[in-house]
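Format notes (please read before filing issues)

Several people have asked whether sequences and structure tokens are stored in separate files. They are not. Every record keeps both together, in the order shown below: the sequence lines, then the token lines. Line labels are part of the format and must not be stripped during preprocessing.
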Amino acid sequence: MIKLPELLAPAGTLDAFKTAILYGADAIYAGLPGFSMRARAKITTDEVKAGIELAHNAEKKVYLAFNLFAHDFEYENLGRVSETINYLRPDALIVSDPGIVMWVRENHPDIPIHISTQANICSARSVKFWQAAGAKLCVLAREVTHNEFKSIRAACPDVGLEIFVHGAMCMSYSGRCLLSNFITGRPANRGACAQLCRWKYDVILREHDSGVEMPIEEDERGAYIMNSKDLCLMPRLGEVISAAPDSLKIEGRNRSEYYVGSVVHAYRCAMDAYAADPAGFDPAPFMNALNVLETRGYTTAFFDGPVGPDAHDYDTTRSTSEYHAAGVITNATDDEITLELRNEIKAGDEITFILPGTMDKATIKPARLINAANRTEVQKMAAGQHNSIIIPREWLPDGLGVKFVPYVLAYKHK
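Then the structure lines:
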């Protein structure tokens, strides 16, 4: 029987925790402000605690990102951090700073250490270094090719190896970027990146001898010279799994529960399909499930070697998808479900539900909308302020009622 790697999902909110669990993640990673690369994290300590309890009740693991690069003065405050770690009791800490690794070993020797992608691990020698330092798992740099991964796996059979399979890419080496620091004063490697690689730029070519300045061709909005497409290894998932990684990581602790659930759903179904029939595995239907997400376009990035120009979108940072989130089910009874809206819905819109554990489609096209607040009929309803609609069970496809539960997601055409 094929041993599948762990599917690791991000959670920046408690709702994302619940959604990741529902759609089949094996483990979840989260971070807190001051702990990690997400200084603007929306989740609180008590919400992370609640998420860990939910995950453990579902027999899932939770890893806490602790991958800040610490200055000397910050070690003075780690007593408070230690209290938080003891309160949360995560299954592992994701660390990148060697000094923090030493601190964890001294203060929390019972908690496994996972080395973050921020440590830029690109070789078997680096893996063995961190293993000797006490690491149980190493997250390899995104710049590692598939062939390099196979060599690292062969040389390091007794330590966990994790790779990113989906999510945003950074134009800098393993996220080591100073653009945000210099231009806006917001440090990228301390969780406050201003995403300057997504900005529009006017590029000027200056001829040194003549002093003439000539703009490089661009549209009326400028040019997006550093805008990477999003990583997606779904087309190569069979090769990924066969190389025996221990964990497949989805990027996105700042993403919505719609993103988290949709990506986890596609990879969970794909991984299970591969396990059932490796020789006949076809990634196409699972790739279609990912195409409903708002995305900058997809790239396999460094999988086959150095990236080419097709890994970037020089024209726009706008989504290439024709779909966006419709809503999320917040309540379900024997008679009806409540769908909290994420975008405007109009009567006659086609709404498709993403059903946990199956690739079966569940689509409805309600001729009328029922406002959940007062049960009046409306022709359209905007999102925001927890605006919701009621959908009677009789409107839903037969035989699938049990699948329509809280935190099930839905999407629609834009």
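For reference, the curators noted about this record: The mean pLDDT is 87. The chain has eleven helices and 22 strands.
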